[in-house]
Amino acid sequence: MPIVTLRDILPLAQTKGCAVGSFNAADVSMADAILDTCVQENVPVILSLAEVHYRYFDLADFLTYLRAKAAKLPIPVVLHLDHGTSFGVIRQGLELGFSSVMIDGSALPYEENVALTKAAVKEAACFGASVEAELGHVAGGEGNLVEGTAANPADFTDPEQAARFVAETGVDALAVAIGTVHGPYQGKPHLELELLAKIRAVVSVPLVLHGGSGLSPDDFHQAIARGIAKVNFFTENSLAAVQAIQELLAQGRPVGYPDLITAAQARVREVVARQIEIFGTRKMAE
Ligand code: 13P
Q1: For the residues 265-284, what does the mean pLDDT come to?
Q2: Where residue 266 falls among pLDDT bands split at 50, 70, 90?
Q3: Distance 206 CA to ligand 1 centre (A)
Q4: Which residue from 4, 95, 2, 25 is spatially nearest to 268, judged by alpha carbons?
Q5: For position 1, what pLDDT does the model report?
Q6: Chain-centre distance of CA 121, in angstroms?
Q7: How many angstroms is it from 50 CA to the middle of ligand 1?
Q8: Residues with Cβ < 8 Å from 207, sequence gap 6 or more?
Q9: Cα separations (Å) of 252 from 8, 249, 255?
Q10: Which architecture, in CATH terms, is 6-285?
Q11: For 143-167, what is each residue's pLDDT tens digit?
Q12: Domain boundaries of the chain, sorted by first residue
């Protein structure tokens, strides 16, 4: 099946009242575990490579591998650049073969975010790729695995500004800040569902929820019911893989490196399958 863009799958997810998982991979074994699970579940998938993970792989080689693999799969696959922070990174990603990019100007003042996003949209159009942007700011990162992050209401998305942003930039999907954070949460997550509903009422493009790890099934169901069509998800996969390796090592018998990778992949597959069920992604085929 050809590699697709967000435009090819997210509007359908919105109509069906479900979400598509955007799962980050930081290496080939993780990408394989994610893609194989989505084939098994027969659902579309957004396979995301984040700019902050570029240090773990050779981007050109990884994309060559993923493009060849995805083209052979019987499911729609979006190859998505996650959190590209500059025009240069977006252009490089498009040239190397992403079918979709996220330009993240969320830390910039509004007008600068608009200008950067517009430039990304114009560039992506030359490649037929889709563009996601972020308005408001979803905090947190991988450095906070121990203490976690708390969402800051001052950074939440303003509905009127969101409507203006989408009209001014022409993005295909909008990431919103409604209480999620990247990485572990400090305390229990709380989603501002009324705010999400207000954004949905004035923004027509599919909405994206970053920071999926740590949310409950009910959080996801409530958010999807209010227009979330793409969920970004990484930390739980990463931690589950590490836990699988720790458990195997704790058995105290000699194991080889491939055994560790295989155990980690099996755990990632479990987590991805569970999330697909929670997101209701199989509705896409109904
Ligand atoms: P988590 O790592 O918190 O699941 O967030 C992933 C994400 O939003 C990637 O963009």
Answers
A1: 98
A2: very high
A3: 18
A4: 25
A5: 82
A6: 18
A7: 10
A8: 173, 174, 175, 176, 196, 199, 200, 227, 228, 229, 230
A9: 48, 6, 9
A10: Alpha-Beta Barrel (3.20)
A11: 678 789 999 999 999 999 999 999 9
A12: 6-285
Mutate which of 81, 178, 210, 237 to test ligand 1's pocket (most atoms within 8 Å of Cβ)? 210
Listed in order, strand segments (DSSP E) in 181-285 are: 207-209, 228-233
Is residue 61 annotated as part of the catalytic site, yes or no? no
| Type of residue found at 246 | Q
Whether the CB-CB separation of 51 and 283 falls below 8 Å is answered with no
Tokens of 149: 């992050």
251: its two tokens: 């058995």
SS3 of 227, please?
Answer: coil
Which helix H or strand E contains 101, and what residues bound it?
strand 100-103
Predicted confidence (pLDDT) per residue in 54-92, tens digit: 999 999 999 999 999 999 999 999 999 999 999 999 999
Q: SS3 of 207, please?
A: strand
Lookup: tokens for 243: 């836990």
Ligand 1 atom with least separation from CA of 140:
3
Q: How far is CA 251 from CA 61, 247, 260, 262, in A?
A: 36, 7, 12, 16
Determine if the pTM surpasses 0.85.
yes
Q: Determine how many CB atoms are found less than 10 A away from the CB of residue 57.
A: 17
pLDDT in tens, 199-238: 999 999 999 999 999 999 999 999 999 999 999 999 999 9
32, 82, 104, 219: which is the annotated catalytic residue? Answer: 82
